[in-house]
Amino acid sequence: MRSRWRVLVVVGALVLAGCSGPAKTPATNAGAAVVYGKTDGGTTFVRNYNVMGPATDKAPNMELVYEPLMRVDYGDGGVVKPWLAQSWAFSDQGKALTIKLRGDVTWSDGQKFTADDVVYSLGLPIEKPDFSIAGITYKSVAKVDATTVKVVFAEPSYATLNQFANILLPMVPKHVWSSQNLNTWTNPDPIGTGPFTVQEFKPQQITLQARSDYWGGKLPMTTYKIIPTSADALKAQLLKGDIDWASASWPNGEKEYVAKDPDKHLYQLYSNGGAMSVLFNTAKAPFDDVHVRRALALTIDRTAVVTTLQRPGTEAGPTGLSEQLFADWLDPAYKGKVQKVDATAAKAELAKGGWTVENGALVKDGKRYQPSILFNADWGWGNYADILINTWKQTLGLQVKGAGQPSAGYYDKQNLGQFDLVAASTGGSGVYGVYRFLSSRYLTPVGKSATLNQGRWNDPETDKIIAAMQRTDNVDELKTLGRQLQKIVVDKTPFSPIYNNFYFVDINATRWTGWPTPDNFDHIPFVGMGPDTILTMLKLQRRGS
Fold first, then answer.
1. What is the pTM of this model?
2. Tell me: the pLDDT tens digits for 18-33?
3. 445 to 416, 450, 520, 531: CA distances (angstroms)
4. 319-344 burial, b if ≥16 CB within 10 A, otherwise e?
5. Residue 9's pLDDT is what?
6. Solute-binding protein family domain spans which residues (predicted)?
7. Taking burial as the number of CB atoms within 10 A of a residue's CB, which of 123, 229, 382, 431 is the most buried?
């Protein structure tokens, strides 16, 4: 077990051999259920398990049915480790990746998981670019034998290994999917390699059935129930013990929840290395002007936001890299730095760009711009948007409109580029993982869904550095390149970090014990992280058993 505060380093050239997926776990507690309260998906669920299809409104927790080839171990420095893949090795100076598969995996219909399924699954985003929601970088994949595949890249790609650990690039069964119209098929009865199948689907409760033949071992529960709830209702449900597990921020949760029963009421925060940021839509005016971006970044009251969040001291630094995880990677010039509100500097930036603020709007060359900020209303982010809006008005006289949307609409508008500013999470595994979304490789025009680069950032210098990071596995070189990217983020401001992001975990341990803790974990008990979620459930024990 490992402490959480380790620097995230992904060395893609490493050959990880051996069978190091989940340990076999004996079956216990037959008939038991784990209840998960989902706060970010509205009040009803849609029975759409087409995990790679174009629809944005889908069933929750598909990662318990469909699994990726690898996993990122955040408890061990963000290293990529085996899952459905048993081992791998780079060759051809990082342009080829040979992946060896586990031999004991079966689909939930009993058929064997083989290289044919992997070639089909990895080939889908190539064949259907609109399905490339994981942001793939490889150009081809081919079968070597029944348990081996070879992935080919156009250029050295050591640093891109973590794409194969993305739950948005899952393995799906060729014998089922290849005969379907993936643009319209909803896959109501999914067949996956994961530990669960769909037992019962109701709009307001989903019951997943634990498989008895899961390759990772027997789960200690027989069912996993998902119910929709709200952030406010969740608190009462956790206190009563109606819900075992949730993933939601709870300001003042230590006093309002943990203190009432420290042994059973667990509220845990795991740093994910990223930040909640203001992302600028650089494909449209006025946010294609660095002076406007800088002016708005200089007038974000980060301390007011984290105070309202009741998380003092979590203001983000200007690079978007968490100092707790990336201390060794940060340029010393940015260590310990948090941008304070500086109205004078912000007004000077606007003046440099030839901008004025008139009647609440940005004005230049006779054109007026009245910006808005998109945010996820299901996250309860309206209060924080108001802080930004009020500060911009007080410091610059600029009236920014709030544009809250429920989750589905929020992601649609963000991906399509239908926003001026958006409050969005930035982060990833390793420095490359945090910044790779800035590559123009993922650039799409406004109106066409983006895989990663929702801000439509298009900068040759950024592309050059990201490409160089992909071509090396030398840690010192990666650090140098990472610091160059930090300078771009600070100086050119494609996005502006507000506060450090965490995985929030809410647990009522009345029925189940064996949960990881932030000080001692090798997987994060955050629902939605695929293998980590599965590892958490495999190791739970029924209290009193």
1. 0.75
2. 345 665 433 334 449 9
3. 8, 8, 44, 34
4. bbbbbebbeebbbeebeeebbebeee
5. 29
6. 80-429
7. 431
